[in-house]
Design goal:
Elements lengths: L1 H5 L3 H11 L4 H9 L4 H7 L10 E4 L18 E6 L2 H13 L6 E5 L12 E6 L9 H11 E11 L9 H9 L9 H10 L2 E9 L2 E8 L1
Parallel strand pairs: 1-2, 1-4, 2-3, 4-5
Antiparallel strand pairs: 5-7, 6-7
Helix pairs in contact: 2-3
């Protein structure tokens, strides 16, 4: 699975189109995954709310969808991290298109062993990422390690208990090597709590669940 994401998988192009196209992509997402990509746009706005001097980690950055929440000239450290050089190039291109090229730092890294000191970031965004990781528990633990006390986590993922309607989507993703073992909503709540997060909130949207939490 990790090897599938290291390459420029065709699904990455499809996903970027679906997310960015409100007129075409969003209706397709509603039909296929029962989800509202408008929630993803809203979730990305948390980046623009950061005060000057804050640091944000975007992992996995994918095609740079979270950049839509960033303001040109915003005085923050934005670190886009992904295991895939192809995804990092996509993020770099998106940063140029949005006039953010000078504000984005690209780091190739595995979420299970990120090259950042403890308590580095004020915010971690992880959109449609947890279900791509071969070790979800380890990824949550590592994200918690690099988020400072009082810092926030905002993300979305396909969870294993999303409902029978979305079982074919999960099975197909597993067979294609694009989805990992995933986790349930109960497991995600428990792991976040164990790793020091409080105020954990989950919001299902069809086959995708949005989540937020604060590092105690």
């Amino acid at each position: 699975m990790a090897n599938a994401w290291r390459t420029d998988h065709p699904w990455a192009t499809v996903y970027d189109f679906l997310v960015e196209s409100r007129r075409i992509g969003h209706p397709i997402a509603r039909i296929g995954a029962g989800t509202d990509f408008g929630l993803l746009w809203e979730a990305a706005e948390v980046v623009g709310e950061l005060p000057d001097g804050a640091a944000v980690l975007d992992v996995p950055c994918g095609g740079g969808v979270a950049l839509r929440g960033m303001r040109p000239g915003q005085d923050i450290r934005y670190v886009a991290t992904d295991i895939s050089p192809a995804m990092l190039r996509r993020t770099e291109e998106a940063a140029h298109e949005r006039g953010l090229a000078r504000q984005v730092e690209l780091v190739e890294a595995d979420v299970a062993a990120m090259p950042f000191p403890d308590a580095t970031f004020d915010l971690c965004v992880s959109f449609t990422g947890l279900h791509c990781f071969p070790d979800v528990r380890g990824a949550v633990r590592e994200i918690a390690r690099v988020v400072r006390p009082g810092g926030r986590l905002s993300g979305s993922a396909v969870l294993s208990d999303a409902g029978l309607r979305f079982l074919p989507m999960r099975v197909t993703g597993r067979i294609a090597g694009l989805l990992g073992p995933m986790c349930s909503s109960t497991e995600l709540r428990e792991w976040l709590a164990q790793d020091g997060f409080v105020d954990v909130a989950l919001r299902p949207s069809g086959g995708i669940t949005y989540f937020t939490a604060t590092r105690a």
